[in-house]
From TrEMBL:
One of its GO terms (cellular component) is Golgi membrane. The chain crosses the membrane at residues 7-28. This is Fukutin. InterPro entries: FKTN/MNN4/W02B3.4-1, FKTN_N. Residues 1-271 form the Ribitol-5-phosphate transferase FKTN N-terminal domain. Keywords: Membrane, Transmembrane, Transmembrane helix.
Length: 448
């Protein structure tokens, strides 16, 4: 009988054992690990569901009509996201309000909030911890005789490490809703919440008043904006800049406001024209901002027209007809869509200048044309983003980097009013930009 090679048998047994061990490790990681992960996720979802149920029940009990403003949850309400969610989530009992984020955001119209100690006590009895953030009321800051009183801006409820944020929305005179920035005071707990993850409070925000509808999400009755996509778009561009009332008052002490009947009548016409332009462009879905002299909003009585800016990518061919239908007459049209387009309209005796801005690497610029010579000019600005502000009871856009924008146009002495101004040489950012060809004049120089 042949001898058995013991070494070969030993090696064969070791190899077989190793293969079996690797198979066990693979099975454990692929199947058992997945089960544990599934259990962990389900536990987190269950905790989030309990938190939301407790909070919304409290809000309903005390008749506080919260509505959902959480960005992640609202994003899931779009049809495309819903279809993708259905493919990925097999536990439909918490598909919207359990977003794997430690925060859920709601909003409340501030006029519906009454400081009820019973609500806060009931929240505490349910296990919630509370952090209240207050700030100055900007609606009073503009009044010389009143310093703005503190108002509630945000409430943060914490339960088992999860945060529910309540954002207070205040009505402003421009017929829009406003919320304040979230600023921690020195004695507040910095670790109370993951503040960088909050959807709201990094800066003040402004919104149109949303229409709300009652729906059922994850088995809970929740109010949401009817037009979710529009609300999400507003939220991305909601940053609001408050008027610098103290600086404005200091300016008016140095340069008293013109209170003559002519100046008062001019401001009335400017307000009417701005509101008309805003309605017309909103109907066309064309965003605009206050530009040039009108951007110096506290000095508007020194201007003789209204200036607005529009990015050329937002130009629409029906803008001329829209302004004509609104009752404005076209005064001149300079340039063309590809280069230095500028429109000017007239309402009563106040001119509305519409400057179109072109983006070029790290700068933006708008053009100017001298009608009698065909000379072209370029006004160069550093790139900027757009924020909301309020002027003459109207929510309007301004460059967020307002000081950079104004300084580029008017120089370091921008705060000193100038009675004499030459648009071809006075601006700090003006550059010669060639001359229109005579063959183009009929198209690029139109005066009415």
């Amino acid at each position: 009988m042949p001898r058995v090679n013991r070494t070969a048998v030993l090696l064969l047994l070791i190899a077989s054992s190793s293969v079996f061990l690797l198979f066990q490790l693979y099975y454990y990681r692929k199947y058992v690990g997945k089960v544990r992960t599934h259990v962990t996720v389900n536990n987190k979802m269950k905790t989030a569901q309990q938190r939301n149920t407790k909070f919304l029940a409290l809000a309903q009990r005390f008749r506080l009509p919260m509505f959902l403003t959480d960005i992640a949850a609202l994003t899931l309400l779009s049809q495309d996201a819903l279809r993708q969610r259905d493919r990925q989530v097999h536990e439909p009992h918490c598909s919207f309000l359990c977003t794997n984020r430690p925060i859920t955001s709601f909003a409340l119209h501030a006029n519906l909030w009454k400081y009820d100690p019973g609500f806060l006590l009931a929240a505490e009895q349910k296990g919630f911890e509370l952090l209240e953030l207050r700030g100055e009321d900007p609606r009073l800051a503009s009044l010389d005789t009143l310093s703005g009183e503190d108002i509630p801006l945000h409430l943060l409820f914490r339960l088992h490490g999860y945060i529910i944020q309540v954002v207070f929305l205040y009505e402003r005179s421009g017929n829009y809703l406003w919320h304040g920035a979230l600023r921690l005071k020195a004695n507040m707990e910095r670790s109370f919440a993951p503040f960088k993850l909050l959807d709201y409070g990094h800066h003040a925000g402004a919104y149109d008043r949303p229409e709300l509808v009652l729906t059922v999400l994850d088995g809970l009755d929740v109010q949401v904006p009817r037009n979710v996509s529009r609300f999400l778009s507003e939220q991305r561009h909601a940053r609001f800049l408050e008027c610098r009332y103290r600086d404005a008052r200091n300016f008016l002490q140095l340069y008293p406001d013109d209170s003559s009947p002519a100046a008062v009548d001019f401001r009335r016409k400017v307000k009417s024209l701005l509101h008309l332009a805003a309605r017309t462009l909103a109907h066309l879905d064309i965003p605009f901002w206050l530009s040039s002299g009108t951007c110096l909003v506290q000095y508007i009585s020194y201007s003789h027209d209204v200036d607005i800016g529009i990015f050329i990518v937002d130009f629409r061919t029906d803008i001329l007809a829209a302004f004509r239908d609104a009752g404005l007459s076209l005064k001149h049209k300079f340039g063309k869509v590809e280069d230095s387009l500028e429109l000017s309209f007239l309402s009563e005796d106040v001119k509305l200048d519409v400057f179109f801005f072109y983006e070029n690497n790290d700068i933006v610029w708008n053009g100017g044309t001298q009608a009698k010579s065909g000379r072209k000019f370029k006004y160069v600005f550093p790139r900027f983003s757009l924020c909301w502000a309020e002027l003459l009871e109207l929510k309007v856009r301004v460059p967020c980097e307002t000081l950079d924008y104004v300084t580029a146009n008017y120089g370091a002495s921008w705060s000193v009013p100038m009675r004499s101004w030459d648009w071809k040489s006075s601006p700090s950012n003006v550059q010669e930009n060639g001359v229109w060809l005579l063959s183009e004049w009929a198209e690029v120089i139109q005066v009415y």
